[in-house]
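DATA SHEET
Item: assembly model
Revision: 1
Owner: S.N.
Input lines:
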Amino acid sequence: MGLELYLDLLSQPCRAIYIFAKKNRIPFELRTVDLRKGQHLSDTFAHVNPLQKVPVLKDGDFILTESVAILLYLARQYKVPDHWYPRDLQACARVDEYLAWQHTALRRNCLRALWHKVMLPVFLGEPVSPEMLATTLAELDMALQVLEGKFLQDKAFLTGPHISLADLVAITELMHPVGAGCQVFKGRPNLAAWRQRVEAAVGEVLFQEAHEVILKAKDSQPADPTLKQKMLPKVLAMIQREAKISRERKEAPSLSWGRWPGPTL
Amino acid sequence: MGGEGVAGLWYLEPRTSLGWVTGGTRPPPFLSSVLPAVPAPAMGLELYLDLLSQPCRAVYIFARKNRIPFELRTVEVLKGQNHSDDFVQVNPLRKVPALKDGDFTLAESVAILLYLARKYEAPDHWYPQDLQARARVDEYLSWQHTALRVSCTRAMWQKMMLPVFLGQRVPPETLETTLAALDRCLQLLEDMFLKGQDFLAGPRISVADLVAITELMHPVSAGCDIFKSRPKLAAWRQRVEAAVGEDLFREAHAAIMKAKDLPPADTAVKEKLKPLAQLFM
């Protein structure tokens, strides 16, 4: 059995891995784990990943979780072109820096935007207050400011003149709120231009294919009651913790993001 | 202390920078004319650290253990020094740790550790060449951001910093929930990563162990006896301390272990740190 990738294209990190593997013609068996059907909670999948999360890589007996680790493993194992994860010390460090930052910043905000705007109400039938949604979208906005101000600046791609893993991870994250109907590129011409470049570098067809599922997220069928019961506590635990953070950021208006030094830095 | 990730300090920053007192930066212009000429800061590697912060300790231990020559630039986050104009030039994210190597600046402890490992050609076991071994390290370094880091930071703040330093009451139920979450994380640490191995990613110490141990010392410093009922984890801790060297380990943790003796913050500081305090609840 060759390389297997356990993915649900509804998930941001899964899309990044899917695009990366396809773009680099890495041969793999796609094992779809349908999150909305609760397939990640099955006993079969628990044998693959007891943490019940996607994405997962299985290469013979070797099982690997965490999308950043998976992307790096694939890049090395299949000796992809250098620009994805450069050998140059400083260029590589820039990619590492983005991949580290995004976990608790852009990734989190994009995830919350999708859940607060679409998935909680539509899929799990749980209303979300307008204030909560507004806070979430304000936080997303702040993360976008950092993305543009610190990472992109006036470069073609996030970490330099060529597309890297950082861009793949970022673009797939941003498509989450896009899938939820948020106009993240509106009023952000720099970011919109970067998006075009990333899509062109990936290839329009592959990009569209990878994002077909997320772009139809708002058409999700409501979860059946049993599944809802299983999923809701986990989702709420994730949302609640971050809701506390966002509430406090809203109450402290003199936040550092608001005083972003700007592209002259 | 939260270091990067969850815990940058966000509040109205003080307009004066104290960085020039503790670090190697320039004094404010109004003092330059009365002070003796200060030599320009070294152009070599500079590490901007606050050892109260978990990721800073990991970077410090790694650099010292590998005899990497660097200038230590102390940035005291509790005093708001991460908001100084000088420091913002180094890291616009206003978080520690940060690295400056000539004109090259770098944020994020994971990125910094890997940069140092590569540039100074640290022994292989820190970040192994072997593909699968390396993947295990990457897996840990990725998982910890939203798992162990979060619960260790919360546990330390809720048990110690909030009540002792900021005089803020933490409801017992809140602390209980936090410690339960920490416990679950520790179980995962043992079951998913350590398993039957000597170290988190295999038979030898790697940067994953450094990141993990410095994380765990946070709740330890607050009096959480996390190793008590976990003999496997306790044995791993001993191995990590031995591999790092007892003296270096103790030195890196001196500040955090004395955090419980910090005098209560004055009213002004308490006000400024209020948003941060809420962050850790």
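QC remark: Chain B touches chain A through 46 residues (CB under 8 Å).
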